[in-house]
Amino acid sequence: MAEEAGFVGLGVMGHAMAGNLARHYHVTGYDVNEARFQGLPGVAKADSLSGLARRCTVVCLSLPDAKIVEEVATALARDLKPGSLVIDLSTSLPAVSRRIAAHLAEARIEFADAPVSGGEGGAKSATLAIMVGAGKATFERCRPVLSAIGKTVTRVGDVGAGGVTKLVNNMIVASTFAVIAEGFALARKNGVDAGALHEAIREGWAGSKVLDVSASAMIAEDYTPGGTINMMEKDLGYARSLAADSHVPIPMTAAAHEVFVAGQAAGNGALSQPAIIHLWRERGGDS
Questions:
Q1: Measured distance CA(76)–CA(51) in Å, rounded
Q2: What's the domain range around 24?
């Protein structure tokens, strides 16, 4: 209990992670939407970022995009004490993470990029996979904090490596969502029941968590987010930006990105990722 923990960003993922962290640490939270404190009795409410920073020695961030992450980290640096630690759990750009780390280091503040995978369910059950970019000593300091919110905590390299790993994770996940959607649409068009299809292939090589989540959503016609089409489109855009900077071709990811852009254009951006199946159903004449 030595660390005084702060948590900035109490959306779907952050709300659950902050609640789990509060089982092990004194936690102070901050969010621009105060309604998000509902259901978090163990999390004290800070009135401002500066108030949170003055109170805490380690601060976790769970924010929607790289620009906001950098703005918040820069603001925190003005009031955090030397020796403090900032852990970014968001999906961000590796170059932004490295820039934040350099800025915080000038104030003798440690930084780790530690994006998570496992969705809302993993956040609630504290079974997230967490991929950490940090120096070895910083990682060891992070480990007990991250173990309070995740099941697998892996150092994948120095700052920025966590973000690279998460973008690769989402390249694989998004491409899988896309091919599952088109496969299930094709099966439905040809008279194969979605439940029977899922049952037939789930124990073969096509089996995966993404298949199970997609099939359940499509069968129930329930596209309540957790993760959303908007979020996945953003992450794939980051992956394409990283690939361009690295001069690495990623044509499968580019195709998947366009599918999620089309999902946004169809007005489904706020729905969960499996809702992209509507693109095929509508164009195949099967609504």
A1: 9
A2: 4-157
